[in-house]
Design a protein that fits this description.
- It is a single chain.
- The protein is 63% helix and 15% strand.
- It is elongated.
- 28% of the residues are buried.
- The strands form 2 sheets. The protein has a 4-stranded mixed sheet with strand order 1-2-4-3. A two-stranded antiparallel sheet has the order 5-6.
- Helix 1 (41-54) links the parallel strand 3 (31-36) and strand 4 (58-68).
- Among the domains are: 74-116, no CATH class; 150-289, no CATH class.
- It is an alpha+beta fold.
């Protein structure tokens, strides 16, 4: 199990190319990959392919820096782009009352500087180096995500256990509440019918049983416990790879439905309090699983 939070950095050299790749990942429902750097499409594709092979979910922001050396390499400056960027930055600085931008502010923008390689060999070397650097960065990122995932798993286990204990208390409370509700119904009906005739005892008992059955939450508790058991099993299953976070999302959503129904069907104060406790823990579980891959 892995979280979606992590960082990794890798550096690799191939031929005259030296490539540095930095990757950062945070929560996201799907894989959202964004790479920055004045690099060729081949270099960017090499990094993107490695990331997609090893990351299923998360917003991944990557920075790629390529350095080349050798007689075949030459620096190219996109003067038109540099002029446009400088103009935009200068206008923004004036609007905000800040100092005018300098050369460093312009040349560090993507696309302003590029390394030209007339032989074409440097681009191949850079792509190979980028793939190797991305692999190293991903090794570190995945390791960090696994460590974060282990911490999350421990916290989730304790919260799942807490919800299970609340369900045990709810099961006991519902038995007492059902018996108490039946007794109150008998008393109220007896007072209402006191001195009257023509009401069959059997019919009265049937009506009371129907009303009590509507307040019964046994089925909701059974389903809720089933969802909770599946959560615990998914958490314990080291082999349950893949997008486990999505499975957790579904189970927590269904668990919430059952708890809401359970609370709506019962008017007993003790059950209402236990339902609140279960909802509180469930919301904490919901927050934690948002960071699971």
């Amino acid at each position: 199990m892995r979280s979606m939070t992590g960082y990794g950095r890798g550096v690799a050299e191939r031929g005259a190319a030296r490539v540095t790749v930095e990757l950062r990942s945070v929560n996201h429902r799907f894989l959202d990959l964004k790479l920055r750097g004045a690099v060729s499409a081949a270099v960017e594709d090499a990094v993107a392919q490695r990331v997609r092979e090893r990351v299923e979910r998360g917003a991944v922001a990557g920075t790629i820096r390529v350095e080349r050396a050798g007689p075949g390499a030459a620096v190219r400056v996109d003067r038109a782009l540099a002029t446009e960027i400088h103009g935009q930055l200068a206008a923004l600085a004036a609007e905000l009352g800040l100092p005018a931008p300098g050369l460093r502010d312009v040349i560090t923008q993507p696309g302003v500087l590029a390394i030209a390689d007339p032989t074409g060999e440097g681009d191949v070397d850079a792509a190979a180096a980028a793939a190797a650097a991305a692999t190293t960065a991903l090794d570190a990122l995945v390791t960090m995500r696994a460590a974060e995932g282990a911490n999350l798993a421990r916290d989730l286990r304790s919260r799942i256990d807490a919800v299970g204990r609340t369900f045990d208390a709810l099961a006991a409370a519902t038995v007492e509440a059902a018996a108490s509700a039946r007794d109150r119904l008998h008393e109220r009906v007896a007072r209402l019918l006191e001195g009257t005739a023509g009401v069959e005892a059997t019919r009265l008992a049937q009506e009371i049983a129907v009303m009590a059955d509507r307040a019964d939450v046994t089925e909701e508790l059974v389903r809720a416990r089933s969802h909770l058991a599946q959560l615990a099993a998914a958490l314990a299953g080291d082999g349950a790879s893949g997008a486990i976070g999505r499975r957790f999302d579904f189970l927590v959503q269904e668990l919430g439905r059952e708890i809401n129904t359970l609370g709506a069907k019962s008017t007993a104060a003790v059950i209402a309090q236990l339902v609140v406790e279960a909802k509180t823990e469930l919301e904490k579980i919901r927050e934690q699983i948002q960071n699971l891959e």
